[in-house]
Each structure stands twice: as C-alpha cells, then as structure tokens.
Amino acid sequence: MKRSKRLVSMTRFIMERPCTLISLPFFAEQFDSAKSSISEDLTIIDERFRQEGTGYLESIAGASGGVKYIPAYSKDYGTPFVEQLCEKLSDTERLLPGGYLFMSDILGDPHTVDTIGKMFASVFVDREIDAVMTVATKGIPLAYAVAAHLNVPVVIARRDPKVTEGSTVSINYVSGSTRKIQTMVLTKRSLEAGSRVCIIDDFMKAGGTINGMKSLLKEFEAEVAGIGVLAEAEDEEEERVVDDYVSLTQILHADDRTKKIEVEPGNLLNRLS
C-alpha cells in the first residue's frame, strides 16, 4: 500500500478510537509494512494533529506500548465554533418563560453535539475519567458525545426508577430553579466504588441538579473529576451551589418579556491551550 493511502487509513482508524492504545505491530501487520515505516507515518499524523490543533498522539514505550490519540482541541480551533454557538443561542425566538432557552435543535444536531463532545473531552482528557454521568433527558446526547471522545461509558441518573435496571440507589435533592424536593435514582450496577466521574448537563442556573448528582455519587463512593455544562445562567433568586465547573456558553441576560438576550463564551475556552 502506498504511504498516502496508508496515512488516510491509519488516521481514520486512530480518530475512531480516541484514548485507546494501539500497538505498532498491529499497524505493521494490518498494512504489511515495516515498523520503521509505521513509526514514520505516526510521526506525520502526530505533527498534522498538532498543527491543526485537534489533538496529538501519545507514545507509550515498551513491549506492550503503542500510541493513543488524545483529543485536545486548541483555543484557536474551538473559538469559531463557540462564537457561532453563542450567535445561535442569541436568537430571541429561543426565549422561554423563566429565562430558559430552546436548545432542542442544537441537541438534536449530530455534528454540533459531536463537536461539543470534543470540546469538553479536550478539557477533561487528562483527569483519568472512568465514566460520564448525566441526568435524563436533555443531557444524554451531550454525555454520549463526551464519553465517545474519552472512550468511557455513560451513566444516566433518572427521576424515576426503571424495572429493567434492577436495584437502585436514590437521593432527594432541592432543585435550584424551582426549590422543590425531587428524587434522583441510579442503578447499583452503574458504577464501581472509587470511580472518577465527569458530570455533563445541558443547562445550569443555581446548580441544584448537578449538586444532586454529586450527592448521588457520594452514595457510590465515587469522585467527581469534572463538571461541564453547555450553557450557564445566573439565578437572581438563588446563590449558585456549584463553583468548580466548565461552561461552553454563558447567558448574561435573558428576558422573555422584553425579548432581550445576551450570550457570550463560557470559561471553557480559557482552559484550552
């Protein structure tokens, strides 16, 4: 196989398996090429990833070593996407009562959700995440996108237990927006004790739902290794109960009565190099 064709095939294979160790002998056998040639190919791919700001190849030495594709999107690469997302969210037609925004179209667009997953994965990729957690239902596509780029499973907390999930653990928490006592459940088979978990949600005001997920994880003796939200907004009536988080966008002002809305990039871009 010519190098040009081999490079295309290797790049596709690597990007489809982020954070997965792939050995040089595997590539050598797959493409019937010498290890020295494969090593040169990987150097070319790594250089291109770094130039584009889309990640890099991490090399692991030794008999059981190989390379891993690490999704690490640069600030220059991610800024245009985040700015475009802010522009979409600034459409006054999205305004809903209570200062919320209609985001179902964004959460239903596979390409947009995949890119959001890459952005969050870039921030959390070095935190040794074991699982990504969200609460049903709107955060589910985001959680799966992030998990796909971190190569970890998804854990979904629900409001009501499902018979098909077996035994569950439940907690009561105070919703930050409604100040109502709500219930959150998670199946006992979801997590192992000591797991490092990344919490992902679509929207956060006071942070009551995320705080509920943190409390639920304590019941599993799991550790919160990161928190990411697509959009954050201030709650004028309640003080925020979550402080260590990453946001893709920030809603500075949203008033459905005056039809005014202001959205700017969140703090995620500042976490990228």
UniProtKB/TrEMBL annotation:
Residue ranges annotated for the Bacterial purine repressor N-terminal domain, each copy included: 2-71
GO biological-process terms attached to the record: negative regulation of DNA-templated transcription; negative regulation of purine nucleobase metabolic process
Domain annotation Phosphoribosyltransferase: ranges: 110-251
One Pfam short name: PuR_N
UniProt xrefs under InterPro entries: PRTase-like, PRTase_dom, Pur/Pyrimidine_PRTase, PuR_N, PurR_Bsub, WH-like_DNA-bd_sf, WH_DNA-bd_sf
Superkingdom: Bacteria
Signal peptide start and end residues: none
Keywords: DNA-binding, Transcription, Transcription regulation
Keyword DNA-binding recorded: yes
GO molecular function, one term: DNA binding
Subunit comment: Homodimer.
PANTHER family: HYPOXANTHINE/GUANINE PHOSPHORIBOSYLTRANSFERASE, PUR OPERON REPRESSOR
Family to which the UniProt record says this protein belongs: Belongs to the purine/pyrimidine phosphoribosyltransferase family. PurR subfamily.
Official protein name in the record: Purine operon repressor, PurR
